[in-house]
From TrEMBL:
Protein name per the record: Phosphatidate cytidylyltransferase
Pathway assigned to this chain's UniProt record: Phospholipid metabolism; CDP-diacylglycerol biosynthesis; CDP-diacylglycerol from sn-glycerol 3-phosphate: step 3/3; Lipid metabolism
Catalytic function, reaction form: a 1,2-diacyl-sn-glycero-3-phosphate + CTP + H(+) = a CDP-1,2-diacyl-sn-glycerol + diphosphate
Key words, A-Z: Cell membrane, Lipid biosynthesis, Lipid metabolism, Membrane, Nucleotidyltransferase, Phospholipid biosynthesis, Phospholipid metabolism, Transferase, Transmembrane, Transmembrane helix
Subcellular location: Cell membrane
GO function terms (MF aspect): phosphatidate cytidylyltransferase activity
Protein species of origin: SAR86 cluster bacterium
Transmembrane domains' residue ranges: 20-47, 59-76, 82-100, 116-136, 142-160, 181-200, 206-224
GO cellular component terms, semicolon-separated: plasma membrane
Classification via PROSITE patterns: CDS (PS01315)
GO biological process: CDP-diacylglycerol biosynthetic process
PANTHER family, sorted: PHOSPHATIDATE CYTIDYLYLTRANSFERASE
Entry annotated with the keyword Transmembrane helix: yes
Membrane topology qualifier: Multi-pass membrane protein
Length: 272
């Protein structure tokens, strides 16, 4: 058991570093153009992997949506992006209510074959990252914060849950995820949020945003677990050692990034 834990953790860590180092290099040098390219490539890979998991595909709808998205962005710019972020944030809020009430069976449309769901989740995630990169002055810091916070919550939840986990959270969806792991992830996020607050002199409102987004990292994790369970899949792919597919690695980021961006821009607008 100990050997299996160490091997799995090592594979996850190596894969995580392979994904994180190039991205953080772009963030460090504050190159928005290259960062946007990386964000676009990642979103395309997510799109293709999800599409490959669907039994029913509609190429015409996909192409029309892509054209609609590009034209909408050209005409309305960040307002168009925020529309998709808001739309996806509402979806995550609603999904989380059904999730924690253990009533997901009432949402029959949550499956890999749902074309609208795939387009909404990926477009909202992509829009979130684009908006963060465009944010004046602290743009790359925001991308750094959300990526590290989500990854940290995920890793600490895995470590604490693997070592001390005894109480399953939603065992009908993902029996290996525990309450102890959940608390470990949130505690790590709280510590990271306070560290960022003191180091970068961020507004105090950023701390609850960071913590709240880590909560939704777990929602995204359960979301993908639910989709895989409905399709009788263990992984969404095999491209990443220790993680399976791209969606297996990015699942918590899909929701956490959207919620983080939505709350950050909302509070900025309100002026808190």
């Amino acid at each position: 058991m100990e050997k299996e834990f160490n091997t799995t953790f090592m594979n996850r860590s190596i894969t995580g570093l392979m994904l994180v180092i190039p991205f953080f290099s772009l963030i460090y040098f504050a190159n928005s153009f290259l960062t946007n390219i990386v964000i676009t490539v990642i979103s395309i890979l997510i799109f293709l992997e999800w599409r490959g998991l669907a039994k029913e595909r509609n190429l015409t709808v996909d192409l029309l949506f892509i054209i609609f998205f590009i034209l909408g962005y050209i005409v309305f710019q960040e307002y168009f992006l925020f529309f998709f972020v808001s739309l996806l944030a509402v979806f995550w809020f609603i999904f989380s209510i059904f999730l924690f009430r253990n009533k997901l069976e009432l949402i029959s449309s949550i499956h890999f074959d749902n074309n609208a769901l795939r387009l909404l989740v990926i477009a909202g995630f992509y829009s979130s990252l684009l908006l963060l990169v465009q944010t004046i002055e602290i743009n790359h810091l925001l991308v750094f914060i959300i990526i590290v916070n989500t990854s940290l919550a995920d890793i600490c939840a895995y470590l604490v849950g693997s070592r001390f986990g005894k109480t399953p959270l939603l065992k009908n969806i993902s029996p290996n995820k525990t309450f102890e792991g959940f608390v470990g992830g949130i505690a790590a996020s709280l510590s990271f949020g306070l560290l960022m607050y003191y180091v970068y002199q961020l507004p105090i409102s950023m701390v609850p945003i960071i913590i709240f987004s880590s909560l939704y990292a777990f929602v995204g994790d359960y979301f993908m677990s639910y989709l895989k369970r409905k399709s009788n899949l263990k992984d969404t792919g095999s491209i990443l050692p220790g993680h399976g597919g791209i969606l297996d690695r990015i699942d918590s980021h899909l929701s956490a990034t959207t919620i983080f961006t939505f709350l950050f821009l909302l509070i900025q607008t309100i002026g808190i």
